[in-house]
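TICKET: design request
STATUS: open
ATTACHED STRUCTURE:
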């Protein structure tokens, strides 16, 4: 029987959770027309029911009882938006075990457990989508897994972290030292109080693992990807690059070679003819090389409540449309196994 309402539970009500809720609420009419059914948020899991929230979030949706979400037969889709490894991975596993489709924005958890979670979805005829885990609003995972699915991808290269790109841009254009620009980025909310995950390349490595799995069908652990952050980049390095008409960027690269996939994240001097050299501030970009479609360049906002919430909502809409049409049990996975 065709469902007239498809219900969603959001796990987490921080920046991404509140952004996702806003996208689903403000575009509800448009989404319903595209899906062929109403898509509504039925529950939002939070740690602290008493904490002050975005006034646009109805308090009656909040719950601290995950078992109630798992046991609610009306909830079709669970969106994991908490971040971290624990309990995020366990919660996604439990949602799949309960017969619910899963959406996630959690690159760290997926980089560690995405292959196992994908196998579970195939065993149980469910869907797992995670567009928002890589480059926010840029539809790179969807491009690789659908529009470019008939291509052999030979190389993926990108600026996958907005914080480091902002820092390098401002160091270059303002002729400012790293420490000063980092503080500015923290004051503007572009960098965390502890920026290690961004500036040392860990965030980009997690995202590259997911791009490799989607594009090449191979799993390379984040621990096995060569990684170098931007803390060693100096003003002199930037001046020397500029003198050669180049820009220093933190570049994530995966290349398909005869003996396997080579992957690394490191600062590189990017020549002006490469479109990645022109990506400024907190923007992300990915350059995908294919044997048939040639080079595909995607650029956009890689973080923020609404850009990331837009990507999460897009995954929810895709799954909801499949449910409404009865095709959710035969959808292809994003992770190429």
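STATUS: resolved
RESOLUTION: sequence designed for all positions
ATTACHED SEQUENCE:
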């Amino acid at each position: 029987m065709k469902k007239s309402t498809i219900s969603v539970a959001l796990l987490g009500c921080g920046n991404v959770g509140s952004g996702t809720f806003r996208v689903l609420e403000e575009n509800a009419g448009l989404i319903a027309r595209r899906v062929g059914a109403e898509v509504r948020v039925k529950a939002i899991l939070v740690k602290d029911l008493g904490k002050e929230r975005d006034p646009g979030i109805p308090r009656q949706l909040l719950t601290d009882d995950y078992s109630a979400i798992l046991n609610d037969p009306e909830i079709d889709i669970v969106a994991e938006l908490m971040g971290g490894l624990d309990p995020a991975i366990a919660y996604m596993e439990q949602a799949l075990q309960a017969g619910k489709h899963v959406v996630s924005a959690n690159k760290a958890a997926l980089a560690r457990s995405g292959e196992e979670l994908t196998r579970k979805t195939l065993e149980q005829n469910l869907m797992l989508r995670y567009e928002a885990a890589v480059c926010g609003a840029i539809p790179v995972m969807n491009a690789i897994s659908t529009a470019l699915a008939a291509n052999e991808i030979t190389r993926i290269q990108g600026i996958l972290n907005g914080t480091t790109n902002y820092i390098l841009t401002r160091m270059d254009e303002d002729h400012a030292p790293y420490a000063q620009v980092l503080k500015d980025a923290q004051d503007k909310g572009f960098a965390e109080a502890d920026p290690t995950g961004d500036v040392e390349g860990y965030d980009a490595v997690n995202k590259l693992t997911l791009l490799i799995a989607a594009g090449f069908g191979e799993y390379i652990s984040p621990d096995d990807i060569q990684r170098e952050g931007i803390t060693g980049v100096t003003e002199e390095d930037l001046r020397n690059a500029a003198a050669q008409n180049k820009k220093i960027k933190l570049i994530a690269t995966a290349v398909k070679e005869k003996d396997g996939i080579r992957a690394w994240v490191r600062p590189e001097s990017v020549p002006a003819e490469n479109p990645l050299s022109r990506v400024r501030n907190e923007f992300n970009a990915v350059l995908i090389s294919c044997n048939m479609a040639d080079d595909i360049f995607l650029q956009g906002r890689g973080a923020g409540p609404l850009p990331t919430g837009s990507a999460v909502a897009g995954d929810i809409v895709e799954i909801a449309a499949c449910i409404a049409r009865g095709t959710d049990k035969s959808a292809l996975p994003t992770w190429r196994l």
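CLOSING REMARK: The chain is about 40% helix and 25% strand. The mean pLDDT is 96.
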